[in-house]
Amino acid sequence: MTMNNSPFRDLHLWKEEEKAEAWNLVESEAPMNADNILKVLKDFLEKEYLVKTERSSGGWSYNPMDLIVGDEKYTETCGIEIKGDADVFDRLKHQLGVYIHNHEEVYIAVHKHKIPKWLPVGIGVLRVSDKGRVWVEKESLLVDFLFITNNAEWDMTIKANNLGISGHTARRAYEAIGQIRKTVLFNRFFAENAFGEGKYNKHYPMGETQKSLLIALNIKEQAKWLKKNLKALEKEFEALKIASTIMETGQ
């Protein structure tokens, strides 16, 4: 799973000689701290993407990563954790387990640091130069293992639970739920909130499939209410029929 329009799509260091060239350049530079690296990334990203940096108030983190990049067209995000040359990776090992569930792509951005051997397979690495250059040393490729399942497996699971729908329909519902989660998170990071008014001044809407799924949930609740009150409604209807008969016959 990657972004449809990844900001780093054309920056991969595929060849070993390219990696060596980038490494030689950063080795010759003065050390960079996290703020220096953040500035390079923001300058590179802000022309085309939405960008939010980490901020907190009263111990509550509004944005859980150092830098969050958003693509308005696809409501997709990339999370970036920045490590300056003097920073350590102690906390990062535990943080990444949370980050991978919130973004389409997750990277750590470094200058001179070498890639930790324990770095999970799906986490990417950006290498940054104080000359303003950015390279992808390792691609971010996060995987939802449910997507290795096929329609026959979905059909059998649905049939075993007597749900009366196709596996294809169930799979679409699952994907729509994921899209709802993604849209809510995107608004969490990038919508303009009218503080204290309980509404957004600017927001990113859900797609029609997402809306349909939520409306269906509402209809289901209404159906439960109707079934529960069906007998009472039938009694009222019978009473109306009797009253109508009496009015027509005068008896």
Fold and architecture overview:
The protein is of the alpha+beta class and 251 residues long. It contains seven helices and ten strands. The protein has helices spanning 16-27, 34-45, 92-99, 151-160, 167-190, 208-228, 230-249, and strands spanning 50-53, 56-57, 60-61, 67-71, 76-82, 105-110, 124-128, 134-138, 192-194, 199-202. Strands 1-4-5-6-7-8 form a six-stranded mixed sheet, sandwiched between helices. A two-stranded antiparallel sheet has the order 2-3. Helix 4 (151-160) crosses helix 5 (167-190). It starts with 15 loop residues before the first helix and ends with a helix. The model has no long low-confidence stretch (mean pLDDT 85).
Top keywords for this entry?
single chain, 251 residues, alpha+beta, Trna Endonuclease, Chain: A, domain 1, 3 domains, six-stranded mixed β-sheet, two-stranded antiparallel sheet, 10 strands, 17% strand, elongated
Q: Give the end-to-end Cα distance, rounded to a whole number of Å.
A: 74 Å
Structural class, from secondary structure content?
alpha+beta
Uncertain segments: none
Q: In CATH terms, what is the architecture of the largest domain?
A: 3-Layer(aba) Sandwich
CATH class of the largest domain: Alpha Beta
Order of helices and strands: HHEEEEEHEEEHHEEHH
- The average pLDDT score comes to 85
Q: Determine the strand fraction and express it as a percent band.
A: 15-25%
Largest sheet: 6 strands, mixed
Q: Give me the count of strands.
A: 10
Rg over alpha carbons: 27 Å
Strand order of the largest sheet: 1-4-5-6-7-8
Overall number of domains: 3
**Shape, per Cα inertia axes:** elongated
How many alpha or pi helices?
A: 7
Give the % helix.
40-55%
Q: What is the CATH T-level topology of the largest domain?
A: Trna Endonuclease, Chain: A, domain 1
